[in-house]
């Protein structure tokens, strides 16, 4: 469970998927997930580029959306070298590795398409931004290079892992968090909160950013959803009688 999932969002070339698999296996990572690969999957160009990391490719899972790909992950890191219109905690690969080893839930490193990187909505879904401190005048890493930097820092985990002082509830997986966000939107829509329509997408994104900042655990998510149900008139008082 300490091994992070490597998620490639809309990868463009089979060769780059293969090279990413090779980078993963060099440092002991074996779980790859693909989100809408441009040329479909499986891709015949991936195998030769993987240089023997065939097991990673054979077990790779394919999803239509990023939300589906990280549905069981409580700690999602969006890798990007560019500043986005999203306010998130920012960590280095080394800091992310420490957090992965200290975490009790599943973790995922998310990488964007080779040409454009992650979109703003992709970054908004994550809990934190993972940024490699490279030359700001030439911030150009290819996909496999970005994967190998993160995998290398994770592989040092035996020295980086810090024991927890007390047993804490793990962060809620992504699908539970998505359910809470959708319920928030459902409760707010009748109030015209997302009006005007021209600002609706930005307002929803801001709400999502706010709700993904805390490290909600499953109990907290259930409690908040109970509050929303009560506010929406969908729950009777606890002491009500038939």
From TrEMBL:
InterPro entries: Alpha/beta_knot_MTases (IPR029028), RNA_MeTrfase_TrmJ/LasT (IPR004384), SpoU_MeTrfase (IPR001537), tRNA_m1G_MTases_N (IPR029026). Keywords: Cytoplasm, Methyltransferase, S-adenosyl-L-methionine, Transferase, tRNA processing. It comes from the Bacteria. Transmembrane segments: none annotated. One of its GO terms (biological process) is tRNA nucleoside ribose methylation. Its main location: cytoplasm. Its EC number is 2.1.1.200. GO terms for molecular function: RNA binding; tRNA (cytidine(32)-2'-O)-methyltransferase activity; tRNA (cytidine(32)/uridine(32)-2'-O)-methyltransferase activity. Coiled coil: none annotated. CDD domains: SpoU-like_TrmJ. It is found in: Cytoplasm. It catalyses: cytidine(32) in tRNA + S-adenosyl-L-methionine = 2'-O-methylcytidine(32) in tRNA + S-adenosyl-L-homocysteine + H(+); uridine(32) in tRNA + S-adenosyl-L-methionine = 2'-O-methyluridine(32) in tRNA + S-adenosyl-L-homocysteine + H(+). GO terms for cellular component: cytosol. Homodimer. PANTHER family: TRNA/RRNA METHYLTRANSFERASE (PTHR42786), TRNA_RRNA METHYLTRANSFERASE SPOU TYPE DOMAIN-CONTAINING PROTEIN (PTHR42786:SF7). Belongs to the class IV-like SAM-binding methyltransferase superfamily. RNA methyltransferase TrmH family. Catalyzes the formation of 2'O-methylated cytidine (Cm32) or 2'O-methylated uridine (Um32) at position 32 in tRNA. This is tRNA (cytidine/uridine-2'-O-)-methyltransferase TrmJ. The gene is trmJ.
